[in-house]
Design goal:
about 350 residues; seven-stranded mixed β-sheet; globular; about 20% strand; binds zinc ion; single chain; 11 strands; binds nicotinamide-adenine-dinucleotide
């Protein structure tokens, strides 16, 4: 097992990554926060596979532990489900020394994390991410929240977990398309911050797809370290944290125009290619970056071309993205492998050309 500490002053916490470590959950929760009670929150799908193991581990550590479940899927990031969680927590008389354990993908982490951020003005929570996306992205960083009918992730809070425990063995039951989707964020981390890490991913694509334990432990830890560094530099996303949006401004437009038929990771993969093309058009980068990125994405089961959307529609959707400030389009571009920068108000013709080339390629 490996440990990486996220340095955020008194809100610092450890990320533990290893194979088979779900059985250590109870001991780790006890030593980290010694809660009066622990409530495991999971979607029913993940609960069926892993809740028993999590509860047994917590109870073996002499913790009073219970399970709450909700239906799987993005629709559960809703006020309705949140309200049902509050009802359960209040009925069970959870106090401020209790902790919530989010066992599952990003939906569970966001929903349970927001419940923890707001119940009794905030109680501790622990992340036990079981999807690759949650392991390398959503479980650390402290963003929690739910969706609103008028926009995704519009209601939320920053609330850091007290511990993140990542058992990479849980990836074995994850559907292949979910694995691929998470790999887009892995590639993104290398692109924006760490050329060596990108190279590790590049060299190990088959070991990654085969979920070889030693490789996955290294890859997941490496991604957590990069995300952690970015978040420690900029907890509330005023500057460098925005680099994590590489591929996402184009990507969100692709997701939206496909009515979410395109998965997030697929959209980010296409978006990274489009961002590379834009960087080339603007003279910020040369084609060699994209030429290295594209085959890695392909080997990891990710697309490198978008559907033939109307370029003007993609552009319009990008300008409506919540990450834009004062109606100015901001895009994150990679100028060389491992190094990102923000470009404000890029030339619209260059953006349109990049969109067209990404659809055509
Ligand atoms: N808070 C953040 O910083 C942040 C960052 C990125 C994404 N997100 C959010 O994360 C969510 C997406 O996360 P996700 O892709 O993990 O979705 P998810 O939680 O819906 O999980 C995807 C599917 O995989 C299943 N699953 C999860 N782990 C499994 C396992 N080990 N074995 C078998 N099945 C498993 C789930 O039941 C679900 O059906 C979105 O709501 C997104 O907004 C948040
Ligand atoms: Zn993403």
């Amino acid at each position: 097992m490996q440990t990486h500490r996220i340095a955020l002053g008194e809100r610092s916490y450890d990320i533990l990554v290893g194979s088979g470590i779900l059985s250590q959950l109870g001991a780790r929760v006890k030593e980290t926060l010694s809660p009066s009670r622990a409530i495991v929150i999971a979607d029913r799908h993940v609960a069926d596979i892993y809740a028993e193991r999590a509860l047994t581990s917590l109870r073996n550590a002499e913790l009073d532990a219970d399970l709450l479940t909700f239906p799987p899927g993005e629709d559960s990031k809703s006020l309705q489900r949140l309200s049902e969680l509050y009802d359960e927590l209040l009925t069970r008389r959870l106090d401020r020394k209790s902790c919530l354990v989010a066992l599952g993908g990003g939906v569970t982490g966001d929903l349970a994390g927001f419940a923890a951020a707001t119940y009794m003005r905030g109680i501790p929570f622990v992340q036990v991410p079981t999807s690759l996306l949650a392991q390398v992205d959503s479980s650390s960083g402290g963003k929690t929240g739910i969706n609103h009918p008028l926009g995704k992730n519009m209601i939320g809070a920053f609330h850091q977990p007290r511990l993140v425990l990542i058992d990479i063995d849980t990836l074995r039951t994850l559907p292949a398309e979910e694995l691929h989707s998470g790999l887009a964020e892995v590639v993104k981390h290398g692109m924006i911050r760490d050329a060596d890490y990108f190279e590790q991913v590049e060299k190990n694509t088959s070991g990654i797809l085969a979920l070889e334990a030693e490789i996955m432990e290294r890859i997941v830890l490496g991604s957590c370290r990069i995300k952690g560094d970015v978040v420690s530099d900029d907890e509330r996303e005023s500057g460098v944290r925005a680099h994590l949006n590489f591929g996402h401004t184009f990507g969100h437009a692709y997701e939206t125009l496909s009515h979410y038929e395109i998965r997030h990771g697929e959209a980010v993969a296409m978006g990274m290619i489009a961002a590379c093309r834009l960087a080339e058009r603007l003279g910020i980068a040369d084609a060699s970056i994209r030429e290295r990125l594209a085959p890695v994405l392909t080997r990891l089961g990710l697309p490198t071309a978008s559907p033939a959307f109307d370029a003007e529609d993609v552009f319009a959707s990008m300008r409506g993205d919540k990450k834009t400030e004062r109606d100015t389009l901001r895009v994150v571009l990679v100028s060389e492998l491992g190094s990102a920068r923000i470009v404000e108000a890029p030339d619209p013709d260059a953006v349109l050309a990049a969109i067209r080339e990404t659809a055509a390629s």
